[in-house]
Amino acid sequence: MSFVKETVDKLLKGYDIRLRPDFGGAPVAVGMSIDVASIDMVSEVNMDYTLTMYFQQYWRDKRLAYIGIPLNLTLDNRVADQLWVPDTYFLNDKKSFVHGVTVKNRMIRLHPDGTVLYGLRITTTAACMMDLRRYPLDEQNCTLEIESYGYTTDDIEFYWKGGESAVTGVTRIELPQFSIVDYKLVSRNVVFSTGKHAPQQCVVHTRNIPNA
To answer: PANTHER family given for it (predicted)?
Structure first.
């Protein structure tokens, strides 16, 4: 136990949270995966939907590599405040929160090679622009669009970890008014005045259930 404590103390000592991993070098590859716990509401009036999910991000930070312990280290969630983490946000978000009962629902796990797993339990209400001209026989595509707020593709490259299997739980969701037809994962390139970004999308295709 004392050796583990010494290892963690050593990793955190002198760690500069202000700099991304490999600062000045290749962009950080940040993998993402989502397990959808529930889709709580789809509102045609407000043009949005609400979902609760387990959102995981993975990246490698060589500053956090360690030897002598052949185990992954799952640390107290408050350690996340002492480490660099991606400034990930949802472009079409209206409001979101990280669950906090009984403690803030986030996880930090370190691997010996410096790989970091950062997990959050989040509920988000996201905009979904719907075409209701065929109501009540309409079909909608609702997206969750994810990217870095401040970093461009020179610093961070997001990708879906595991490809199409990066998102789970969608097919088991049951909604009173909609049926979920399918979903797909999409990568885009967008240029803002601040530089190039590459948002990642999860697009859920729904169909209205008449007389629901």
So the answer is: NEUROTRANSMITTER GATED ION CHANNEL (PTHR18945)
